[in-house]
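[step 3/7] fold_predict: job queued, chain A
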Amino acid sequence: MGRSDTRRRARILFLVLCLLTCLTCVPAHTFAHAHAPQTGATAFHHPRPPRHHRPLRHHRPPRHHRPPGSPGPCFLNCIYVSNYGDNTVSVIDGTTDTVLSSPIPVGHVPLGVAVNPNTNRIYVVNFGDNTVSVIDGTTDTVLGFPIPVGREPYGVAVNPNTNRIYVTNFGDNTVSVINGTTNTVLGSPIPVGHSPYGVAVNPNTNRIYVTNISDNTVSVIDGNTNTVLSSPIPVGREPYGVAVNPNTNRIYVTNFGDNTVSVINGTTNTVLGSPIPVGHFPYGVAVNPNTNRIYVTNEYDGTVSVIDGTTNTVLGSPIPVGHSPWSVAVNPNTNRIYVTNISDNTVSVINGNTNTVLGSPIPVGFGPWGVGVNP
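[step 4/7] structure written:
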């Protein structure tokens, strides 16, 4: 492992530990220099530690968010949010935009969330346990024991057509593949680039896309053979999030260090045109394949940028949401977009028809990180 990889891994692990333990020894002014976007040829542009990795001023919200007698599990239009500080998953009813029942206990430090709508199973990556928890969406209970995967798992994605689940192991530079029928890992982990983080699937082509933060690349896995196809695709600096439009076979990658989004042609595995400028420190990305709109969270700005997938240009002004918007997911059936505000312990809901926020943010658990939708 190179020196730069070692520093990058140490930085990210430190940020997570700060976030988990709420270290009072880290004053706010420690990150003041990094908070300001830097310009000019001589500036050293280095993504600041996101604000949620500092001690939070917010009190931990209660773990029960509904009045007695509120409905239990939902079956359609359900949103699942991982709360890394509570080691739980909150479930939101997308019809009423209210939290259902008590949060679901999962493993230690839950991060990525993915849903298989065909089986109504929800997969939650437990960074602190090196495992994946499986939730039965019918009962909102965890099935069996957590599934062991690689070291420091972050991202997770599902191919609903094959019932395969893909997990990025940041610490091992690999991807684990889970059989959704047996909830067991298939074969050996797949080697990818350095520091794999985000992962997305095109179910139509059975291709899996993995962002490699330290390499500034995207690896492409053939889901039929579970092998990597050709060379990694160069993108922008520090690629974190990745999302796919299966209708157009376009892949969208957030470049956290460049404040841009790269667009990949899934047929040729090449980048299309120049990166699309968005807000400061873009992290999460999600696609509505029905409208061909792409939603990008800008962590520093507290906004969401909307990209027109036909022209690859940003539409209008960024949409203000909560503090430190992190992950984002779309319900294509309702055209609603869900954004986790990690410093506010809330979820914002955007109306995709008007690109405006609906109502007040929804309170969830402590440190909402990942979000997935069962439409």
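[step 5/7] annotate
The chain has two domains: 3-31+44-53, 78-374.
DSSP finds two helices and 34 strands in the chain.
exit 0
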